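Priority: medium. Attachment 1 of 2:
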């Protein structure tokens, strides 16, 4: 039990309730501890009706703890459950909402839904832990994190830490910290000091895209191909596979899950952007661009690219999906569509 968190949470909730509503702590029955409850709150409406809300209070609450909260909620079918903590990350809040649970943190994030009497309260607070959070990995941004995620998504499970480090060609110590970060977010399942046995691929790709958007993965420039994207595509067909380019984004996605006509050609290029642009006959522009080139900070994205039947070189479906999720325009919607296609195909497609 976290008594200070509960009391602070009550005071915070009082300020967020609509006019005429009130909240107070009530005496919990003797079996509350057996059901895993930390407290009971009574919320009263202006017309005199009231509802009892069960409370699960915890100073630190991670996405993986949401399943425990759901189990506690199953023991109290007669009342809704609200998780109260000092801070709840966006991933944690999303998981709790998916499970139909209410939540509140002392930074100002709150979501409370009651059916009877009807009540909906939602507010945004801090996006990051005010105290800076715990030490260690705090995002999937960076070259090593990207390599670890790619290797993990493509791996046959179960996979040991050492095998994952070898596949990703990075330090095992760093992989250990990455796995700790992913486990806290309920993105992987791992035996204690043992192999990774499960990966939530959909949520992991989305988390990677959020933490490391396309603009963070290399130097980007925008260009105009005056004759249109199709002219550039035809020119690329004449380029040898070893010329150092790989198509990503919408043009790559059309191979597997076409959604709409391609308006922006996105290319990874090896070497200086200016040299690549000259070779392709592109004109630098700040408006009306139909070509985006990326000089990647990690050339692994180019090393894993493959030439397809149409004679063009493309990134893997995984890379195209994560790039689209943080691209402009319709990119995120196309990324979601490609990601859904990949989930339906099974594990083989994740290996590129």
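Attachment 2 of 2:
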């Amino acid at each position: 039990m976290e008594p200070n968190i509960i009391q602070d949470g009550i005071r915070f909730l009082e300020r967020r309730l609509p006019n005429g509503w009130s909240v107070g702590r009530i005496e919990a029955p003797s079996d509350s501890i057996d059901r895993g409850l930390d407290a009971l709150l009574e919320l009263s409406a202006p017309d005199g009706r009231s509802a009892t809300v069960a409370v699960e209070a915890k100073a630190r609450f991670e996405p993986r703890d949401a399943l425990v909260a759901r189990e506690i909620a199953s023991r109290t079918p007669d009342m809704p459950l609200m998780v109260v903590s000092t801070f709840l990350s966006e991933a944690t809040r999303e998981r709790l909402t998916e499970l139909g649970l209410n939540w509140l943190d002392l930074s100002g994030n709150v979501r409370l839904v009651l059916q009877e009497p009807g009540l909906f309260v939602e507010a945004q607070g801090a996006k990051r832990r005010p105290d800076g959070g715990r030490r260690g990995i705090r995002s999937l941004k960076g070259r090593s994190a990207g390599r670890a995620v790619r290797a993990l998504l493509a791996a046959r499970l179960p996979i040991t830490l050492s095998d994952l480090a070898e596949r990703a060609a990075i330090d095992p110590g760093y992989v250990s910290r990455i796995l700790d970060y992913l486990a806290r977010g309920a993105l992987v399942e791992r035996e204690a000091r043992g192999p990774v046995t499960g990966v939530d691929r959909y949520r992991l790709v989305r988390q990677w895209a959020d933490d490391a958007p396309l603009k963070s993965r290399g130097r980007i420039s925008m260009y105009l191909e005056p004759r249109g994207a199709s002219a550039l595509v035809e020119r690329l067909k004449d380029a040898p596979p070893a010329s150092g380019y790989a198509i990503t984004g919408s043009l790559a996605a059309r191979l597997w899950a076409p959604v709409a006509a391609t308006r922006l050609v996105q290319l990874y290029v090896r070497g200086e952007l200016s040299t690549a642009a000259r070779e392709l006959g592109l004109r630098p522009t700040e408006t009306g661009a139909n070509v985006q080139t990326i000089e990647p900070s990690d050339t692994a994205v180019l090393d894993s690219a493959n030439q397809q039947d149409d004679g063009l070189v493309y990134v893997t479906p995984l890379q195209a999906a994560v790039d689209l999720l943080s691209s402009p325009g319709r990119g995120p919607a196309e990324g979601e569509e490609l990601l859904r296609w990949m989930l339906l195909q099974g594990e083989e497609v994740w290996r590129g």
